[in-house]
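Morning!

As promised:
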Amino acid sequence: MSDTAVEVEEVGGEFERTPVPKSKLKGWKSFLGMYAGEHAAGTEFMIGPLFLAAGASLKDLIFGLLIGNILAILTWRYLVAPIAVASKLTLYYQLEKIAGKHLVKVYNVVNGVLFCFLAGAMITVSASAVGIPFNVNFTVPENIFGLSSPAFSMIVIIVGLVMTVVAAAGYNTVSKFANIAAPWMIVVFAACGLSALTQMEITSWDGLLAEWDKGVNVVQAANGKVDFGFWKIVVFSWLCNAAMHFGMADLTIMRFAKDARAGWGPSIGMFLGHYMAWICASFMLAAQIKLTGDITANPGAMAWSAVGWTGIICVIVAGWTTANPTIYRAGLAFQSLFPSNAKTYSGVILAGLIATAAGVFPALSGELLGFVGFYGAILGPMGGVIFVNHYLAKKMNFTQNYADEAQTGFNVAVLLAWVIPVILALYFIFAQGLFPAYAVIPAWIGSSVLYVIIMKSKKS
Amino acid sequence: MKILKLISGISIGVLILLVSILSFTGALKLASINTIMLVGTLLWFAVTPFWMKEE
């Protein structure tokens, strides 16, 4: 998962309402470094094992992730980067020009709520590691809103409150710490994977495949047979960051690019985080199943078993450094809900409390495979509106940056073009059981087409 | 500065990554591998903040 945009927006805190000047632009290679640690986050400890738990075959995982990550990088390169380089504006300011400032507030709050659930999962991940020295393991209840043991719930609340206070008071310190921790975290992910292979006594490719399949069989014997095939892996790994590329959130960071080659920036980060880290994390669950028979994807316990205290520290740091900017960003979105004389940290405190409440339900973190697709399906379609506004508005003879031109704070055309495909996507996800990541591209296309139709009909 | 960077490199490159590779290949059979990795971790966080620039 990525929070690059968040960091630049808040830490940089500049050119938020003007195009980035030429003197501040960066070459494409600096984006490689900027993104390198961004996709090796706390979520990787949860997502990796969930592939095995979902019944994916190892070959499908290796080749599916390869193709999915390449597609994601191409999307950044050919969809986001050209628009970012041309406009040099943040997502929020660009949206404000098209949708109006009031509609952007709605978008921000929706974004904030989704961020809270993501941060909640990270609080659960960190708490799973904090509990290990105290011999408190988290058990995952069957009910999605079921609680774990009282001791684990208490640890989640303490961890969540500490993270909230730090996000409100010391965001920059944790952000700097995250930069320092990133290379170490990537190496620890690799060490965890190697240690898991050692624990499974793997000496050959066939041996690894056999152990993987045994792990899948054990999980499926307990949870029932499920299928997570090649194309599902491709689509998931392509679209798990859909809010950032299809949804254009990364306009905020790529606006600093000299040219569109900055779109290659996420390549190293993606292959470290969404390839190496996911696969290594999945090996940890396979090793745990072989050693103990326990099928619970408990990041703290798996990392402890793999590399001891280093693993515990890594899970806590990974969860914390992901949750911190996420809570902070959600807090900024919520701040608009408070009166103007409210304390500046009110929104962050509210976001932290919601995230902590979400973290208390461990089953939510086990739904990350679905959640990140759901997140993309809700926020991604706004990217379609930006795409149409950028490439088609002039060609098709309707007003570009409509809200700015018409001096309106609420462009109903954007609201309809966003909400109608999202409602349809939610219907197919919740009523028809569609895998959420499958809904992202249809919703994005739907949003784009609807915006063209509404704007054209408005003109006529 | 170069020495600090070298120490940081060794802390994660050797004490964490190389040790786990050698353990996997069977070239290193130490009961204290996890302790070595912890030393690498502590070394990284003790040394790196002194040279890593804020990007």
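Chain B has one domain: 2-49.

Hope this helps with the figure draft.
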